[in-house]
């Protein structure tokens, strides 16, 4: 049973004369981790916003096709209702701080207050979310006094506390250092194991390769491919879409080492390692 | 982070009271003297305000506020004391300058009024967390959106000032003159203002999106993480103040009837 179904989605921003999304169709199951890749301006953020209903309900513009979350058609519900099902984390941590709360703890409560969650449950959810993102120690800090990575984890905690079934993350780690990035990925993976469907836009292909169940390539608003990371990164035409395969894939491609079962190049260190070891054994 | 809010939590009684009680106090302090028609009432309220501020350990914070207005008030005293039309009774002679009683009395009235307004507002502002006050309004039916705007202003303005400072530094490090005479400053201001405006416009859009996905426009009834700010004393304080107000009105009406 699919959690999310996108059918021939087309979208044009107001006052523009090109389709920012042009015929996107895919589906994802509950708990799947979907990576979205493509070059700058290809429409990744627009797609994220279409899943969260911001396109077309915030931006207006012309819209065709549909996005279904369970049996809800995204276009037909208010963003404030949809946000209980689909949570969104944006790129810039700073702009996600509401500015109306004085502590991290209160900041996380913002969405819950809006949803009308009773106080006791609110406290329990906030504590859980802070624990998961490892920000409990900053609970009494002013939200603006956090580092970028801490702020982004607070933003994710704020969304997680609202207990959505799908979370869309648009380059959430582009402003973080490698450690902050890894922390965010670990946390997101935990969510995905809990059955939350994840959409992740990311320019770091190593991360996409090791965490995604399936990867969607978009270019110029068009869907180029939707497949496992192995299949995606074994394609010969990645250059055309401004995508660079993970280092391990490139090495194995040079060496001509394909996985004999799948016919694909490995995409992670472990896979590459396994393959090379096996080869050695055979020799 | 810098804050433009003057409030400081000192755990004082004033901190613990409901914001409404303090607002009612301002109303009482401003309206009662007018109803009763006596400057003495204002003076009494000034004394009460000073007492409350002293007791809440925030009297020191009124000094900068009083300093600025003090300067203006001093000019009022001097000008009115010396030159007010209708000055006839000399009161004080300092060499060639003569202060007149009528002008000084008039100036005294102004000073008392201004001080009363300032100090009673200080009772509210220096001892109330802005977000507590707005939250209490929202609980009573005030629009959460306006509430948000009011509260966020306290955080976002200092944030914009910081952006401004960062951009100024960046421009200066590229060799732009930002100090000097007015013309230099105006020339420096233009390239400075456009990135600030641009970045705040973009930020505003992004923040609007971020608020949307956190249910900002949800139609259901909001709940609150923090309990309503009030103490057991609030009810009695508010009743007392309302009674005082009524007493003042009755006293005045009876006085008029006689
Ligand atoms: N609010 C908007 N109004 C008009 N056009 C827009 C708007 N936002 C994006 N676009 C255009 O839509 C296209 C897709 O943009 P989008 O932001 O989705 O790309 P992206 O893949 O997220 O790029 P990046 O990797 O830089 O984040 C671009 O050509 C962009 O200029
Ligand atoms: Mg983007």
Description:
- The complex is a heterodimer of chains A (283) and B (258).
- Chain A has helices spanning 44-51, 54-57, 79-82, 104-115, 119-132, 148-160, 178-193, 205-211, 229-233, 247-255, 269-282, and strands at residues 2-12, 21-29, 33-37, 62-69, 72-73, 86-89, 166-170, 197-201, 214-219, 222-227.
- In chain A, 37% of the residues lie in helices and 22% in strands.
- The mean pLDDT of chain A is 92.
- The radius of gyration of chain A is 20 Å and the shape is globular.
- Chain A has a domain at 246-283.
- Chain B has 2 domains: 10-128 and 231-258, no CATH class; 143-217, no CATH class.
- Chain B is built from 9 helices and 2 strands; from the N terminus they run ααααββααααα.
- Chain B has helices at residues 13-16, 19-36, 39-55, 62-83, 101-125, 130-139, 144-173, 182-212, 233-257; strands spanning 90-94, 97-100.
- The N and C termini of chain B lie far apart (60 Å).
- The interface between A and B is large, with 45 and 33 residues.
- Bound molecules: adenosine-5'-triphosphate and magnesium ion.
List the helices and strands and how they pair.
The complex is a heterodimer of chains A (283) and B (258).
Chain A: E1 2-12, E2 21-29, E3 33-37, H1 44-51, H2 54-57, E4 62-69, E5 72-73, H3 79-82, E6 86-89, H4 104-115, H5 119-132, H6 148-160, E7 166-170, H7 178-193, E8 197-201, H8 205-211, E9 214-219, E10 222-227, H9 229-233, H10 247-255, H11 269-282
Parallel strand pairs in A: 3-8, 3-9, 6-7, 7-8
Antiparallel strand pairs in A: 1-2, 1-4, 4-5, 9-10
Chain B: H1 13-16, H2 19-36, H3 39-55, H4 62-83, E1 90-94, E2 97-100, H5 101-125, H6 130-139, H7 144-173, H8 182-212, H9 233-257
Helix pairs in contact in B: 2-3, 2-5, 2-9, 3-5, 4-5, 6-7, 7-8
Bound molecules: adenosine-5'-triphosphate and magnesium ion.
The site of magnesium ion has 3 residues of chain A, from α1.
């Amino acid at each position: 049973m699919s959690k999310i179904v996108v059918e021939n989605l087309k979208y044009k921003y107001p006052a523009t004369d090109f389709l920012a999304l042009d015929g996107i169709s895919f589906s994802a199951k509950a708990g799947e981790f979907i990576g979205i890749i493509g070059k700058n301006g290809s429409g990744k953020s627009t797609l994220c916003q279409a899943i969260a209903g911001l396109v077309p309900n915030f931006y207006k513009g012309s819209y065709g096709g549909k996005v279904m979350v369970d049996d809800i058609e995204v276009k037909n519900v208010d963003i404030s209702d949809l946000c209980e099902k689909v949570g969104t984390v944006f790129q810039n941590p700073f702009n996600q701080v509401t500015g109306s709360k004085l502590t991290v703890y209160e900041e996380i409560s913002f969405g819950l207050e809006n949803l009308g969650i009773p106080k006791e449950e609110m406290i329990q959810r906030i504590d859980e979310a802070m624990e998961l993102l490892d920000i409990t120690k900053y609970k009494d800090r002013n939200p603006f006094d956090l580092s970028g990575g801490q702020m982004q984890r607070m933003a994710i905690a704020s969304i997680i506390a609202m207990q959505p079934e799908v979370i869309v993350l648009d380059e959430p780690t582009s402003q973080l250092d490698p450690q902050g990035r890894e922390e965010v990925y670990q946390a997101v993976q935990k969510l995905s194991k809990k059955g939350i469907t994840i959409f992740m836009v990311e320019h770091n292909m190593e991360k996409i390769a090791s965490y995604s169940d399936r990867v969607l390539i978009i270019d110029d608003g068009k869907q180029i491919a939707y497949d496992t990371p192995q299949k995606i990164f074994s394609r010969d035409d990645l250059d055309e879409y401004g995508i660079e395969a993970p280092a391990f894939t490139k090495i194995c491609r040079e060496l001509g080492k394909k996985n004999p079962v799948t016919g694909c190049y490995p995409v992670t260190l472990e896979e590459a390692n396994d393959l090379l070891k096996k080869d050695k054994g055979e020799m | 982070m810098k804050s433009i809010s003057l409030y400081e939590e000192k755990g004082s009684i004033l901190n613990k009271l409901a914001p409404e009680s303090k607002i009612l106090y301002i109303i009482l302090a401003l309206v009662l003297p007018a109803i009763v028609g006596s400057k003495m009432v204002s003076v009494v309220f000034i004394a009460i305000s000073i007492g409350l501020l002293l007791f809440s350990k925030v009297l020191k914070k009124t000094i900068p506020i009083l300093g600025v207005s003090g300067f203006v008030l001093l000019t009022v005293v001097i000008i009115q004391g010396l030159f007010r039309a209708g000055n006839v009774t000399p009161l004080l002679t300092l060499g060639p300058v003569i202060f007149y009683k009528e002008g000084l009395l008039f100036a005294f009235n102004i000073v008392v009024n201004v001080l009363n307004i300032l100090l009673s507002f200080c009772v509210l502002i220096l001892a109330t967390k802005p977000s507590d006050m707005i939250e209490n309004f929202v609980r009573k039916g005030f629009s959460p959106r306006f509430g948000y705007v009011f509260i966020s202003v306290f955080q976002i303005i200092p944030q914009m000032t910081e952006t401004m400072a960062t951009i100024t530094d960046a421009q200066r490090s590229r060799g732009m003159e930002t100090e000097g005479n007015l013309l230099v400053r105006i020339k420096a201001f233009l390239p400075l203002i456009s990135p600030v405006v641009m970045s705040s416009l973009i930020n505003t859009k992004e923040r609007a999106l971020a608020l949307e996905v956190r249910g900002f426009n949800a139609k259901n009834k909001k709940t609150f993480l923090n309990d309503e700010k009030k103490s057991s004393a609030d009810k009695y304080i508010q009743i007392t103040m309302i009674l005082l107000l009524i007493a003042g009105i009755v006293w005045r009406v009876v006085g008029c009837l006689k």
